[in-house]
Structure to design on (858 residues):
């Protein structure tokens, strides 16, 4: 047995490191944290802020194995990542595995190469308790904020919601940007573009240096230009340079991977983690732009050999963030001799990192800028043409140029022909086009990361999980926004004639940008109204600074927590007691039929329109909003239209047909079958002919593609991807199968595997009581309705075998359920009957059952 045990947090990392260490070392993985705060309950003593850590259920077997390995080793090397999270992992391991200081060593490295690993072994240290405490402070503070604010949301907004220190601020940014866009009033102006010809008929594109607010002024200028002799008034040429950007930090890598590769933040970090663990790049969670001398030398050697000595310009960059203390280097290749790697997806990201690092060590690009002024002294304003020539490409040779989302799309930099001052030019066309100002753009993932970093909110390790969380919580999404249409005026001067046309222009459309959901807006407004300090950008940044001070030993973490909680908890109590419920209610108008108020608001099942008041003697009626509609922007007229749904059409093949809208969007209901109406199609426009077309398309899609034991097999695509259906059984079709061309053997194989799995699923089942004992991934468990319960151990502390579980009575199983949930079998008949009655009455008038039915996807 090896005398040295090395513990890392990832199996891939363990595999790579094992290659570099000899037979005296055994490398094992902890698979991340081995313990954490409990999943149920806060797990924090609020008088001392001491966390109650526990080994998670899925890590108990692993911890037992690690303890056994520790007993056989003389020295344990804790080699988790070098950031605070990694330090905390090492500390938890040392504590749980009962490692003594004399039998443990902490090693860190920012790249997984043989030299780095061996150097780390030669320079061990002990666990840095300050870094551990900084991580504990973050974990404990965020747990307290989440556990105390979330129940307030359940009570005041809607059950099942959550709040968080960083996630709620990220949502606030997106909501505020959306409100800014809604409140934006576009202003029109006329921009003039001219195309001029020199004596050799070469074109020069130029822009007028003045915009006109009024159409009449633009037309007047065109009239003047009609008879004007245009000349070159001035030519200015000046040298310039462009310099490379610094090497990647976590944030800039996420932004650039989004811009250049179209990767989302989560995907970028997943691929970067693999590149790091497989030894290709340095540590990928960093806010430092510094490079080691070794890296600078390596880049210089590669640049000189590949491009030439004139392209090399070694330099180091200064990190702007004062808190960038943990990481030693920017993200860079570990070996500049490795220009590409085999895996296509990994290689795309690796190439980006490789080229960015090389570019940062290359000479500036030399450019020559040319500005030509075109006009006549008789004209009040002149045209300007701008051009640019690259004299020496420098770093552009490796990295090229990519415009950011903030750069002007109409940038006019181009190569210009040679002209001289006084030279007469003829105009080919001069065009005045009506242009409207645009609001600030919605956030992309890259833009949101940039803004969070700019405000000092979160740290490199938090950006990806924060962005994932706010989408998982359904506070924001990336739904497509359909554009609006408006008229624009365009006037063109050509051959001494002015032609005016009115064109249609689309505007306001968006896709793959963050948009707040209705519930996201309501939650944000409630939190900003009642917890202004917690959602304050400055406060969130100051908390991050406190974590940095704890990491450097300049602040005690429990003192920080005491100070925070002494102000935070009283506010929680005050809001819980005194704040009004939040529904995002908007009074839209009065229903002309009933004379009752029409509201847009959040209800139990999401955004809805309500006619009448909840305390009226006659219950209100409701209608669900359609996809793309929003309680903050829906008009009175659009709201009343929703009450026309569902509506009935004529029968098809003897089965009733209706059109409605539900949780998954608008649909045609044919008998008991729900068929989604294609995206972007207005359900109110669906007439008998269109409904029959949609039904016929469904018939074709649902036609049997094969048989299995004499029964038809159909296929379709649902929420969870492609599937085949046999009797009442849905079978997911994995990607390894060609879904469009499934063979009979494919179908047999898929259904056989599903039936075998189903046969092994139940150990015992009581269908009437909705109780079963099932085989699960982690062993047998009890299922009651949708709830799952653990199977307790026997009196001798051993687990039940499957044969023993088969012999259990229903009463015994019920007792196990009530031990874990005393209210599991509590009488619920009366409240359920009352609720059913209310729902029935409301939905009879509003025709709402469709809003609750699942829609079968085509």
């Amino acid at each position: 047995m090896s005398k040295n045990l090395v513990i890392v947090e990832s199996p891939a990392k363990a595999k790579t490191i094992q290659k570099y260490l000899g037979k005296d070392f055994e490398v094992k993985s902890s698979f991340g944290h081995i313990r954490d705060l409990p999943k149920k309950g806060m797990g924090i003593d609020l008088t001392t802020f001491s966390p109650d850590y526990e080994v998670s259920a899925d890590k108990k077997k692993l911890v037992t194995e690690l303890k056994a390995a520790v007993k056989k080793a003389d020295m344990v090397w804790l080699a988790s990542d070098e950031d605070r999270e990694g330090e905390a992992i090492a500390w938890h391991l040392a504590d749980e595995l009962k490692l003594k200081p004399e039998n443990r060593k902490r090693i860190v490295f920012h790249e997984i190469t043989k030299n780095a690993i061996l150097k780390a072994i030669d320079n061990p240290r002990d666990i840095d308790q300050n870094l551990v405490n900084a991580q504990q402070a973050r974990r404990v503070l965020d747990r307290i904020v989440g556990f105390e604010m979330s129940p307030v949301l359940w009570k005041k907004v809607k059950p099942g919601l959550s709040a968080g220190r960083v996630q709620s601020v990220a949502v606030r940014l997106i909501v505020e940007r959306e409100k800014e866009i809604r409140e934006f009033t576009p202003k029109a102006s006329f921009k003039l573009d001219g195309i001029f010809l020199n004596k050799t008929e070469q074109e020069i594109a130029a822009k007028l240096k003045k915009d006109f607010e009024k159409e009449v002024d633009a037309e007047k200028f065109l009239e003047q230009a009609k008879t004007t002799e245009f000349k070159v008034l001035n030519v200015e040429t000046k040298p310039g340079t462009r310099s490379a950007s610094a090497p990647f930090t976590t944030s800039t890598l996420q932004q650039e991977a989004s811009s250049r590769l179209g990767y989302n933040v989560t995907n970028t970090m997943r691929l970067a983690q693999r590149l790091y663990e497989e030894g290709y790049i340095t540590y990928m969670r960093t806010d430092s732009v510094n490079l080691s001398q070794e890296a600078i030398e390596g880049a210089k050697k590669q640049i000189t050999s590949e491009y030439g000595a004139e392209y090399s310009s070694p330099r180091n960059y200064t990190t702007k963030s004062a808190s960038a203390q943990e990481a030693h280097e920017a993200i860079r290749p570990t070996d500049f001799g490795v220009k590409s790697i085999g895996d296509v997806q990994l290689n795309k990201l690796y190439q980006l990192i490789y080229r960015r690092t090389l570019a940062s060590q290359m000479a500036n690009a030399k450019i020559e800028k040319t500005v030509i002024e075109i006009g006549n002294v008789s004209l009040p304003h002149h045209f300007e043409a701008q051009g640019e020539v690259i004299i020496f490409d420098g770093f552009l040779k490796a990295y090229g140029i990519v415009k950011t989302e903030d750069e002007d799309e109409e940038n006019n930099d181009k190569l210009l022909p040679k002209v001289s001052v006084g030279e007469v030019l003829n105009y080919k066309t001069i065009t005045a086009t009506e242009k409207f100002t645009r609001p600030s753009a919605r956030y992309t993932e890259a833009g949101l990361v940039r803004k969070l970093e700019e405000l000092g909110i979160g740290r490199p390790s938090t950006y990806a999980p924060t962005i994932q969380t706010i989408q998982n919580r359904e506070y924001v999404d990336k739904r497509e926004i359909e554009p609006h249409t408006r008229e624009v005026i365009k006037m063109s001067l050509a051959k001494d004639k002015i032609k005016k046309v009115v064109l249609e222009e689309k505007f306001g459309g968006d896709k793959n940008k963050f948009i707040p959901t209705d519930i996201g807006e309501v939650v944000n407004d409630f939190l900003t109204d009642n917890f202004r300090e917690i959602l304050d950008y400055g406060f969130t940044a100051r908390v991050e600074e406190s974590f940095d001070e704890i990491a450097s030993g300049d602040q005690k973490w429990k003192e920080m927590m005491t100070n925070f909680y002494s102000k935070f908890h009283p506010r929680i109590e005050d809001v819980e007691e005194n704040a009004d419920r939040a529904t995002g209610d908007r009074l839209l108008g009065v229903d002309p039929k009933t004379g009752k108020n029409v509201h847009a608001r959040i209800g139990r099942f999401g955004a809805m329109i309500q006619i009448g008041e909840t305390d009226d003697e006659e219950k209100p009626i409701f209608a669900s909003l359609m996809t793309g509609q929003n309680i903050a922007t829906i008009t009175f007229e659009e709201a009343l239209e929703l009450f026309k749904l569902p509506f009935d059409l004529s029968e098809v093949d003897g089965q009733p047909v209706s059109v409605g809208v539900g949780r998954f969007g608008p649909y045609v209901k044919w008998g008991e079958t729900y068929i989604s109406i294609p995206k972007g199609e207005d359900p109110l426009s669906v007439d008998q002919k269109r409904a029959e077309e949609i039904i016929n398309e469904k018939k074709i899609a649902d036609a049997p593609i094969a048989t299995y034991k004499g029964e038809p097999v159909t296929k379709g695509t649902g929420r969870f991807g492609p599937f085949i259906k046999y009797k009442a059984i849905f079978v997911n079709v994995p990607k390894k199968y060609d879904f469009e061309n499934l063979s009979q053997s494919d179908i047999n194989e898929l259904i056989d595997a599903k039936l075998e799995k189903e046969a092994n699923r139940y150990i015992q089942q009581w269908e009437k009581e909705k109780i079963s004992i099932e085989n699960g991934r982690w062993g047998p468990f009890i299922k009651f309705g949708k709830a799952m319960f653990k199977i307790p151990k026997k009196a001798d502390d051993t687990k039940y075998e499957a044969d023993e579980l088969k012999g259990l009575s229903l009463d015994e199983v019920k007792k196990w359920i009530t031990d874990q949930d005393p209210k599991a079998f509590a009488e619920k008949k009366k409240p359920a009957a009352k609720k059913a009655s209310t729902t029935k009455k409301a939905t009879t008038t509003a025709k709402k059952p469709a809003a609750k039915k699942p829609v079968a996807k085509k």
